[in-house]
Amino acid sequence: MTTKLCPYCNSAQSMLMGNVYCSHSADDMVKLDSGSMMIRANELEETAEHVSRLTIRLSLNGEQHYKVGNNDHVIDPNSYLVVNQGQRYTTSFKDTKNQEMMLVAFKPAFVSDVLKSVITPEDKLLDDPFKPAGQPVAFFEKSYEMDPEIQKSFAILRGLMNERDLGIRKEYDLQSIYSSLLTRLFFVHKNLKQDIDRLKSAKLSTRMELYRRLVIAKDYMDAHPEKRISIEEVANVSYLSPHHFKRAFKELFNVAPHQYHVGKRLEQSRKLLTEKSRKIDDICRMVGFENSSSFIRLFREHYGYTPRALTQNNI
Q: Mean pLDDT in the chain?
């Protein structure tokens, strides 16, 4: 007998298609079909810890925060997050207006079948069409830059969720959308090798592990524009020495980590200046600067105009 869903999953039951696994219920994630869901709310308090199936998650407007394992991530309409099967996570968001988040959760056997069709030559598929792929499926758990094809598939799903004619929903081939999403995800993942190869380690396995740690560190900085983060703190997040972290981060992203995070904090301040009616001194503190004079100087150097010019529409 299936137990009651948790409040987080229950809040989405009116806007889902297929099955979205809730690890607080008695359902078996292996048996449930793939499914998609959407939540509309202006606030979602941090959820209880869940165990995920393989999922693609995005926010259609506003920012959504995740803790995946021990790592912090944030997504907005320009990005999406991948969470692997069996991973633990919590999530939250807060805004002044209704926010929409969506996810697609994949049945493990479906993932294996799609992977097999992607990596197996056509003649081998014909020889033994029911042989499993024979390898685990795991992606880099990070915030990915929004991909047009993934965005298009989610737009179709969102339109179907808003469709009042249930017959249209039932007749739509959702499996083809899920297959397209997974195929594109495999393609995006494969193309990360050109980024990974920027790192100078000789062995591919070492470069891949270093890449994984560095993108965790980058996502941590993205998730915390509200404070000044020391190199020691973010290096500790990536389980690297400060010197190794600084050198490898610049190799991969072509910018020093401190410079990168200052840019993210200034980007957040610019967003707050355009959206909120707050004093410049208040916003300065909200993005972790100790005094307004250094904040204004860095802002002007970065954008070519002052915060006041932005608030007074003089740019």
A: 86
Closest by CA to 62, choosing from 43, 77, 45, 80, is: 77
Q: Tell me how far apart the alpha carbons of residues 275 and 288 are, in angstroms, rounded to a whole number.
A: 18
The pLDDT tens digits of the residues spanning 256-298 come to: 999 999 999 999 999 998 876 778 889 999 999 988 999 999 9
Distance between first and last Cα of the chain: 62
Type of residue at 269: S
φ/ψ (deg, to 5) at 89 = -155, 160
For 42, the token pair is: 């202006």
DSSP string across 177-220? HHHHHHHHHHHHHHHTHHHHTTS--SSHHHHHHHHHHHHHHHHH
Do residues 273 and 295 make contact, with C-beta atoms less than 8 angstroms apart?
A: no
Residue recorded with tokens 């007749």: 171
User: Are the beta carbons of 275 and 97 closer than 8 angstroms?
Assistant: no
Q: Which residue has the higher pLDDT, 60 or 12?
A: 60
